[in-house]
Design brief:
It comes from Qipengyuania algicida. By secondary structure, the chain is an alpha/beta fold. It has 2 domains: 4-224, P-loop containing nucleotide triphosphate hydrolases (Rossmann fold); 228-296, Alpha-Beta Plaits (2-Layer Sandwich), CATH 3.30.70. It has helices at residues 45-52, 74-78, 96-106, 113-122, 138-150, 168-183, 195-201, 219-226, 270-284, 299-313; strands at residues 4-14, 20-30, 34-38, 60-65, 68-69, 81-84, 156-160, 187-192, 204-209, 212-218, 229-235, 251-254, 259-264, 289-296. The strands form 3 sheets. A 6-stranded mixed sheet has the order 6-7-8-3-9-10, with helices on both faces. Strands 2-1-4-5 form a 4-stranded antiparallel sheet. A 4-stranded antiparallel sheet has the order 12-13-11-14, covered by helices on one side. Strand 1 and strand 2 form a beta hairpin. The protein binds adenosine-5'-triphosphate (ATP).
Length: 314
């Protein structure tokens, strides 16, 4: 793999109560990518981030970041890693700019006014810099969290559920921020429940459930490999069997012969073209239909179907 900046091998975490939150996770993160870790509640996302950021002690496995073994050389690597946690654990009475300058200081970096201004401006916090954090809206507090993580100029940034509970406007704004960070060369790992978010922004996606990393792939390849087109064609008259003229299409009769269901394609638009051909064939054969409902599968469908398969396998 080109330039892995984070390498996890066999990463396992068993909490003291015996719960296995991570089960032998292998993962390489490439320089400059946006990697989305998708998984339901309790999948192990926060535990994985915590392990890399030194907040959770792994039970076994190895972690290397920027070529340093995190178990031995943690400090050197940690300087280059930023974390935007889910919740603000900071002094709410502090003015915004102090909180951010302090975060930078924690990493032993000298104060840098220009950098502070740049971070504040890029997150639209400049006008709020003198305000106490507690006086800010929820969305603005989120921005403070990001600003704190950016203050020490990390090369690898973890965002744990960056947009959970924020409104649509702010979510879009956050996406833009994340894009801008990537443009500056920051590698980004984000966890999310919002599949839309992964679909919109990520280069690669990892799906995790019950501590198992079920799949890691380029987002586009995943969509192509697992994407499907589904079309429901409501017929003018019910059928008792599939006519030979359309037997070559992947169709089934549904709703007591009143609808034809096409399931095929590969997430590249091939399915849509095939549905168009199917309807043309029906028309030519004099088979009337009254409605067509087409659905291209999304990352969400892929996610739900993968998790369903895992449930079935347990
Ligand atoms: N300190 C802890 N002690 C014991 N169990 C824990 C601890 N922290 C997390 N867990 C458990 O480990 C599992 C994974 O939790 P984790 O927070 O990593 O999941 P997550 O994917 O981040 O979930 P969410 O999306 O809800 O934040 C869960 O079953 C959780 O209850």
């Amino acid at each position: 793999m080109a330039d892995p900046i984070l390498e996890l091998e066999g990463l396992t975490k068993v909490y003291s109560g015996g719960l296995k939150a991570l089960d032998s996770v292998d993962l390489n993160i490439r320089k400059g990518e946006i990697f989305a870790l998708l998984g339901p509640n309790g999948a192990g996302k926060t535990t994985l981030i915590g392990a890399v950021c030194g907040l959770v002690r792994p039970t076994s496995g190895t972690m290397r970041a920027f070529g340093h073994d995190l178990a031995k050389d943690w400090r050197k690597a940690r300087r280059r890693i930023g974390l935007v946690p889910q919740e603000l654990a900071t002094d709410m009475f502090e003015p915004v700019e102090h909180a951010i300058a302090y975060s930078r200081g924690l990493f032993g970096l000298p104060p840098d006014k220009a950098r502070l201004e740049e971070v504040l401006r890029s997150l639209s916090l400049w006008d709020k810099r003198k305000e106490q954090i507690r006086a800010l809206s929820g969305g603005m507090k989120r921005r403070v969290l990001i600003a704190k993580a950016l203050a020490h100029e990390p090369d690898l940034l973890f965002l744990d559920e960056p947009t959970a509970g924020v409104d649509v406007e702010l979510r879009k704004d956050m996406w833009r921020q994340i894009d801008a960070m990537r443009a500056r060369g920051v590698t980004i790992i984000l966890t999310t429940h919002y599949i839309e978010e992964a679909e919109e922004m990520a280069d690669r996606v990892g799906i995790i459930n019950k501590g198992h990393l079920l799949m890691v792939d380029e987002k586009d390849a995943m969509m192509k490999r697992l994407g499907r087109t589904e079309a429901h064609i409501t017929l003018a008259k019910p059928m008792s069997e599939i006519p030979a003229i359309i037997a070559r299409f992947p169709v089934e009769l549904e709703r007591e012969g009143t609808a034809l269901c096409y399931r095929g394609g590969d997430g590249t638009g091939k399915g849509k073209a095939e549905v168009a051909e199917l309807t043309k064939t029906l028309t030519t054969a004099g088979i009337d239909y009254v409605a067509i409902d087409t659905h291209e599968s999304s990352l969400e469908d892929i996610f739900v179907s993968l998790l369903g398969k895992q449930e079935a396998a347990v």
